[in-house]
Amino acid sequence: DDWLALKPQEPSPSQCCGSGCKPCIYDVYEKELAQWERAKAKQDKNLLMEKKEQSNNSELNPDTFTAFSISSVEQLTEDTYQYKFELPGNSSLRLSLGQHIVLRGVVNGLEVQRAYTPISPGNAEGYFDVLMKHGELLMLASGTGLAPMLPILQSITDDEEDETFVTLVGCFRTFDRIYLKPLLQDLARYWNIRIFYVLSQETSLETLPWSYRENTYVGRLSEDLMKTIISSCRRKPFVLICGSAAFNEDMSRYLKAAGVEENSCFVF
């Protein structure tokens, strides 16, 4: 059981950016899996801690990831941020002109990697800067109001360069009334997509499959729940609303109470 807990987890297809990165997240997985298998065969967990020696000038190794600390984050525009990473001493990345690096991290519990070209000078010492754009969408759908949200969601997941964070809140009467469950579950596996369900006529989560319980609420989408969802977003989102006239009116009122301006909402 101890060894199984230490076994590397195979990436899902949504974790690969498809840009031909070297190493790809699958390359890293295969290397870590081979290292785990060697350590298990010899029953020596210390072998899992093996690391390649890093050169003094901090040149990156194309076969492995290196940990760096973020020293600052500066918001440049409404959805664009500049991240400054520390390098040890006065070392530099020593990248060629236009060469990109691959950053790996954990977002919403999912390991993600993306390719970026640093914006700092090639000879910058002790740091490097990366520009990231983080848009945020909140989708509020009631019943068949889910329909116009799906093409938007799929256009985001189909574009490997689109880093928009999306929170979809689907409101249905009961669990059985949720439309397109397999499609929604597939979309929720993407690193930048969160999906919540609000079931107005269910009284308990205990009757739901375990995989739905963590992201499902029973009762109606209230003003308090709206504030909770808004506060869980990384920034004030642009909101899309689609449902009955009464639903749309209620959502607009709740959003206003949560501090979301009218010009940040679109009602289908």
TrEMBL record:
Domain FAD-binding FR-type positions: 63-178
PROSITE patterns attached to this UniProt entry: FAD_FR
GO MF annotation, one: oxidoreductase activity
Family according to the record: Belongs to the flavoprotein pyridine nucleotide cytochrome reductase family.
Coiled coil (UniProt feature): 26-58
UniProt cross-references to InterPro entries, sorted A to Z: CBR-like, Cbr1-like_FAD-bd_dom, FAD-bd_FR_type, FNR_nucleotide-bd, Oxidoreductase-like_N, OxRdtase_FAD/NAD-bd, Riboflavin_synthase-like_b-brl
TM helices/strands, residue ranges: none
SUPFAM superfamilies named in the record: Ferredoxin reductase-like, C-terminal NADP-linked domain (SSF52343), Riboflavin synthase domain-like (SSF63380)
Protein name, entry field: NADH-cytochrome b5 reductase-like
Pfam families xref list: FAD_binding_6 (PF00970), NAD_binding_1 (PF00175), Oxidored-like (PF09791)
Keywords noted in UniProt: Coiled coil, FAD, Flavoprotein, Oxidoreductase
Cofactor(s) listed: FAD
Record's keyword annotation contains Mitochondrion: no
Binding residues for FAD: 114, 116, 131, 133
Organism listed in the record: Mesitornis unicolor
